[in-house]
Amino acid sequence: xxxxxxxxxxxxxxxxxxxxxxxxxxxxxxxxxxxxxxxxxxxxxxxxxxxxxxxxxxxxxxxxxxxxxxxxxxxxxxxxxxxxxxxxxxxxxxxxxxxxxxxxxxxxxxxxxxxxxxxxxxxxxxxxxxxxxxxxxxxxxxxxxxxxxxxxxxxxxxxxxxxxxxxxxxxxx
Length: 173
Fold this sequence. Notes:
This protein has a domain at 5-110. Helix content is 42%, strand content 3%. The termini are far apart. Strand 1 (41-43) and strand 2 form a beta hairpin. It has helices spanning 5-12, 16-27, 55-61, 67-80, 88-92, 97-110, 154-166, and strands at 41-43, 51-53.
């Protein structure tokens, strides 16, 4: 089965938490959770090449997975949908090292700090194709904090460079 990586990334583009959640599905367990055959991966329609994730459906299917799989999927669903918050103390404690690093990178990305971690663990993705008119990611409440990409500030770059130099990792590329 194929993994519609470009289509999912294009759908999520511009919304840090959704980008991070989609990357978790793509990168965890060899992409098993992002295959087109999964019922929560849906084409937007015959005239769209984009795919979306139905976070509610994925949340409803969690009972069929093992404990470790359920933990990583819980975190992804929580990032992708405000309707399903998770208790991180229960979900992070049972992850193996690789999945934990993936969640840490996704969390940094969702918070708008994708360069917080070394590039080897970053979840940042290359530019995806532009989005044709497509449905939104979900309902927006005017009181919700912004989930879109903030404007890059000079102090963000200086902070990232300072942090890397303190760790002896040198300047960013």
